[in-house]
Design brief:
By secondary structure, this protein is mainly β. It has a single domain (3-416), classed as Porin (Beta Barrel), CATH 2.40.160.60. The chain has helices at residues 3-17, 34-37, 252-255, 290-293, and strands spanning 66-83, 95-98, 105-115, 120-133, 151-166, 171-187, 210-224, 229-236, 240-241, 262-270, 275-284, 315-327, 330-339, 360-370, 373-390, 399-416. The chain is elongated.
Length: 417
């Protein structure tokens, strides 16, 4: 792959990736790369392509020289039902609300790996780390005086150059620099900034898109415990981001919205010459980001140092998968993952805007090879999940039921050299 081709691919992802949104494990993607997505996101001990550094940078030591370019079509189904609400005479939020005015999102990816010498391997992975989108044509808060459509749109793009070092033929360590770009927009929720509820009410809602950049690090290890069993481990600290100044009256700490720390371990077992079984356990620390983890009922003003947030909890994701080589030209994959619930039942009111409640995912994938090139595919379904919770009395009481389901399909082309 020439440097000009690589630059063009990175530019393509930069342009398209900033316009996408995805949400699976909370608002993080279940995995990175079409091959990993086909096996439920497993990848900490099972590097498969040029996107390996997005999961574990040590894994690039074992992918070989290659380039991968992919595109995923993501379609979430999200919304809310409110019942029993009474905010005063003639004031009720009751009803069914469909958050799908924006229906489909394209998520591109590019991965590139090159061995520098027998020990050192360099690469870069460009991918959408995650996001959240809701778009309610019928505003769920109209009865309180909110106007126009309502929703939020969060998008995160990572560009992750990486280095891996082979300690031996079977053990490697790696590091990736996560250069992050994110943007955010909120609309139709200005009503919540009134009566002194926000420290900066003019910067709460309907301010258009705001952007922020930042950086963080991911480190990793992978190595063979036995000839058939591989262990992987990875850790990414909090990615420090600039503030969303246009929304400093909404998010805690005057618009601060860092990317949560996350880490995990994985095992891959070569059960036979054709069959590989693999599993990952991942932890995402949403509660460490005040804008995400603080409760709506913190008692402080929106935008303040300890201001309200979405009340999300830390989550643990368990991913299980299998890969089977039918022949040298064809590999089939499948997987299942489960993640603990990020959204508590006590926080459903504000999370009408961010109903990231799905927990169970089933995936299928395949790779067809011809010469140095290969086409990979995956299908993913996140089963519908509903979280119900009481609305506080000062918002009219009643119940808010959040629901979400998801479908994804992706394709990638990779080539070795």
């Amino acid at each position: 792959m020439t440097s000009a081709t690589l630059r063009s691919s990175l530019l393509l992802v930069g342009l398209l990736g900033s316009a996408c949104a995805s949400a699976t494990n909370g608002y993080f993607s279940t995995g990175y790369g079409v091959k990993a997505q086909g096996i439920a996101g497993v990848g900490i001990a099972l590097p498969q392509d040029g996107l390996a550094a997005a999961t574990n940078p040590a894994g690039t030591a074992y992918t070989g020289n290659r380039t991968d370019v992919g595109l995923t079509l993501f379609q979430p189904d999200r919304g809310a039902d409110i019942s029993g609400n009474n905010g005063g005479p003639g004031v009720s939020l009751d009803g069914h609300y469909d958050g799908n005015d924006s229906k489909r999102f394209l998520i591109p990816e590019v991965g590139y790996v090159r061995q520098i010498d027998p020990q050192w391997v360099a690469g870069v992975a460009v991918y959408a780390n995650g996001g959240m989108n809701t778009d309610y044509g019928r505003n769920p808060f109209a009865a309180f005086g909110a106007t126009g459509s309502a929703g939020v749109n969060l998008e995160q793009l990572f560009v992750s150059p990486s280095l891996a070092y082979k300690l031996s033929a079977d053990h490697a360590v790696g590091i990736a620099l996560n250069l992050a770009y994110q943007r955010f927009e909120a609309k139709g929720i200005q009503i919540f900034a009134g009566n002194g509820a926000s420290s900066a009410p003019a910067n709460f809602s309907d301010q258009g898109r705001d952007t922020a950049t930042g950086w963080g690090l991911r480190i990793g290890y992978t190595g063979k415990l036995t000839p058939a069993l591989t262990l992987g481990a990875t850790y990414a600290g909090k990615t420090r981001m600039g503030r969303f100044d246009k929304y400093k009256g909404l998010f805690a700490e005057q618009g601060d919205f860092d990317v949560p720390a996350n880490y995990g371990v994985g095992l891959a077992w070569q059960a036979s010459s054709a069959l590989t079984l693999a599993a990952d356990v991942q932890r995402i620390e949403y509660s460490g980001i005040k804008a995400i983890g603080n409760s709506l009922f913190s008692g402080a003003q929106f935008g303040a140092a300890n201001g309200p947030g979405f009340g999300w909890r830390d989550v643990t994701a368990v991913k299980l998968g299998a890969s089977y080589d039918v022949s040298p030209a064809l590999t089939l994959r499948g997987g299942y993952s489960h993640v603990s619930q990020a959204v508590p039942s006590t926080e459903t009111l504000l999370n009408i805007l961010a109903p990231g409640v799905v927990q169970d995912h089933l995936t299928l994938g395949a790779t067809a090879r011809q010469g140095a090139g290969e086409w990979s595919f995956f299908l993913s379904h996140a089963f519908s999940k509903t979280v119900s919770g009481a609305i506080p009395a000062n918002y009219g009481a009643g119940t808010a039921n959040l629901h979400m389901a998801q479908n994804s399909v992706g394709i990638a082309y990779g080539w070795k050299y």
